[in-house]
Amino acid sequence: MSDPVRGTKGGAGTAAGAGGGRLAARGLTLAYEDRTVVHELDLAIPDGEVTVIVGPNACGKSTTLRALGRLLRPAGGAVLLDGRELARLPTKRIARAIGLLPQTPVAPEAITVADLVSRGRQPHQAWWKQWSEEDERAVVEAMERTDVAALADRSVDELSGGQRQRVWIAMALAQETDLLLLDEPTTYLDIAHQVEVLDLVRRLNRVRGRTVVVVLHDLNQAARYADHLVAMKEGRIVAEGAPGDIVTADLVREVFGLDAVVVPDPVTGSPLVVPGAPWRAEADAEATVTG
């Protein structure tokens, strides 16, 4: 689990100084034209763990993930891979180290599952090195791990939401990167498929040792699946650390503006956030006034 020391609250300056991993951000500022979205953020991604980034809408969590995958150039500071600025590294080297699944990937029309997963091998291709036995092995293993091998000849367009998400994750796995970044992989999925995808992510981390960074909306899912949780608000890190160390009623109120009770999950023991009932408090107050 993550070092509890890193679970202290504070601004961006407290977020990353205590530990390190292959992927990190230092003084990272991100902007769209003249609108700054992330402010001087420091973040170290723990190797071999599942890190989940949470926060309200428009807090900068997906923007941060895009920068970690070099889809967005920093307005200030830097993203570091093995101590070197991501912006200065060759694209193929990054693609061999970091697999990134954006929030709403779009597959070419009528492409089959096998063909889409095979595209994950593009970073390993060159004009003198075309498709190899190693590529074939990586694709087959990726489809087997994500339980989509039986769908190999099916069109991606025909699949359910959960199946499509597993196929996209298989494509990212076929890259054979040590770092995997997933931006809201459960969006638009029903609860059964959400659990299916997150269980898959956990297995990839536990069995294959992948370092995973996930952006999620659901705080309870984040607390359940994360080794390391990062809570953001208004482009800054409010708290980070093991879920059991940082998920409190005070944090939920500060980050999400929600009154809640935090209790142990009866299945996993992880923090479970139970929202309060503001309508009941309002009704009780009104009854007191009118009574």
Automatic annotation (TrEMBL):
SMART domains: AAA (SM00382)
Record keywords: ATP-binding, Cell membrane, Ion transport, Iron, Iron transport, Membrane, Nucleotide-binding, Transport
Transmembrane segment boundaries: none
InterPro entries xref list: AAA+_ATPase, ABC_transporter-like_ATP-bd, ABC_transporter-like_CS, P-loop_NTPase, Siderophore_ABC-ATPase
Domain of life: Bacteria
Key word Transport present: yes
Compartments (UniProt record): Cell membrane
Domain ABC transporter: 23-259
GO molecular function, one term: ATP binding
Membrane-topology annotation of the record: Peripheral membrane protein
Residue ranges the record marks as coiled coil: none
Primary site of residence: membrane
Name used for this protein in its record: ABC transporter ATP-binding protein
Species of origin: Streptomyces gulbargensis
